[in-house]
Amino acid sequence: MSQDSKRTFSRRAFLATSAAFVGSSAAAQTANSTEVEADINGAVQRNIASFRSLDWQPYFSTLAGGAILVDVQSRALHYWSEDQSVYKLYPTSVPLTEDLTRKGRTEVIRKVEGPSWRPTPAMRERNPEWPEFIGPGPDNPLGTHALYLSWQYYRIHGTHDTRKIGRRSSNGCIGLYNEHIAELFGMTGVGTQVLLI
Q1: Which residues are catalytic?
Q2: Average of pLDDT values for 106-116?
Q3: Nearest-CA neighbor of 71 among 83, 84, 55?
Q4: pTM above 0.85, yes or no
């Protein structure tokens, strides 16, 4: 067997083993997920070409209190600090469908570390098997931190199910990796302006 053949075989074996491992991890996470309504294990079209930095000025007249822009199409959250010394770009999960997506201007009205979760009445209607309440912890679909928006039931929050990020997978909220929402949580305050486009 030539050196190139050995290298090809090893690479193929590694990829096959990796795919099997990833698949088993994803199946284990699905059992604890209470926010996803669609199977996200299948092929997913991602829009990574649009994941790029943006300037705040086309979207906000001022950065007073800081600003968050969520671009649902590119599945990205942009944050600018009031003094423009900090700019962050995070990948997000976005709502499953257009009818669950709300766009426009809102603001952060409350910040909670270790949030609890209750499904909305509409969620309970669609999914009567869901629990009525989940306290803080690893089974909570809001992850470790949540920024509550002025729109009822809408939040920017973390997730313990990292497969959701970069996908249409929520019931209306914007999801971030737990480490990203923790960082954003520390930079924002009540009154931070938010725009979803």
Answers
A1: 157, 173
A2: 98
A3: 55
A4: no
